Amino acid sequence: CVAEILPYCAGLVRNRVQCLEDYNIPLLLSHTITAIRGKNRVEEVVISQVDDRWLPIKGTEKVFKCDTVLFSVGLIPENEISLKAGVILDRTNGPAVNEYLETNISGIFASGNVLQVHDLVDWVTIESEKAGKNAAEYAKGIERPSKLMTPIKTIPNKNVGYILPQRIEYVDKEKLVQFSMRPRFPDKNVVVQFISKNNVFYSKKLSHVIPSEMINLTVNLDIAKLSDSIEVNIVPSE
User: Would the pLDDT of 47 be above 90?
Assistant: First the structure.
């Protein structure tokens, strides 16, 4: 069986279906391992239900005979080299970047799992191609549009764990920007809102969102109509 400490499945729906449901493997939500027993090797584990603070609830223990325990502990971006170079990290533990995927250090770009943990390699490829193209143009000295005096910050708000890029730095009259984000909690029938000057200038309805699935949206920004910040929400659809 699989014990998940969260009240919802933290993995991709596709993986849950193909790896668990297709093989009739039980998924115990709001459960965790509280004991591993055996002599010389694993013989059994004790799994307990947890409360909303992730503390085991007495009396809910279940014993499972087994010979192997696998731990899924997640990933965080590896940025030791970035830190040594003076790159500022975001709440994702990845570099904070602009719309060119450039960090606060001129000429240093970030993509892939260094920037954010991806669930699909397709998006790693797209992101890396973009960062590589921008790095090559930087090395060739290809001129960019004028730089904004004050960068436009992107602010993750209601049910948004993080958003990339964290800032918009260059002036194009109109520009398409690829944004990626993850929700904090699962929800159904929602709308993603981009707000500036108290005006929702972009919205996208989604049938469901879960933290394990990244949301990728391409948004047309009219810089002249924006303030110095863009707030992003994921809220119930009316």
Answer: yes
